[in-house]
Every structure is written in C-alpha cells, then in structure tokens.
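TASK: fixed-backbone design
INPUT:
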C-alpha cells in the first residue's frame, strides 16, 4: 500500500513538473529546461518523501505497540 501511494503522489508531482516545463517553454519562450532536471528530481522525490513520511510513520508506530 505504501509503494502504491508513494508512486501515485510521485506521478502527480511529475505531472506538475511537465506543466511547469510546458508553461516555461510555450508562454515564456525559454528553452533552458534541460538544466532543471536535477531540481525536478529533488522536488519530486523530496516532496514525495515529506508528504508521506508523517502519516506512515504514525501508522508504523501503531503496529509496533
């Protein structure tokens, strides 16, 4: 269940990076998006971890007791 939730949130976050890239290239006419790849990875995997860390850490604590 945790992995399904983790990758579902990651999929949504990747969609936001695609929308950001499309907005940047189509509306602002900036084509320097290749150098943002590492920032995108940090954003997606970092936010995904932070979003799911707290609820699931409480869940695991319930099962330990």
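OUTPUT:
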């Amino acid at each position: 269940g945790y992995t399904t939730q983790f990758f579902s949130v990651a999929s949504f976050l990747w969609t936001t990076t695609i929308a950001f890239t499309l907005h940047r290239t189509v509306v602002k006419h900036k084509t320097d998006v290749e150098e943002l790849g590492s920032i995108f990875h940090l954003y997606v995997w970092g936010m995904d971890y932070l979003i799911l860390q707290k609820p699931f850490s409480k869940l695991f604590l319930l099962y330990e007791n």
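COMMENT: The radius of gyration is 16 Å.
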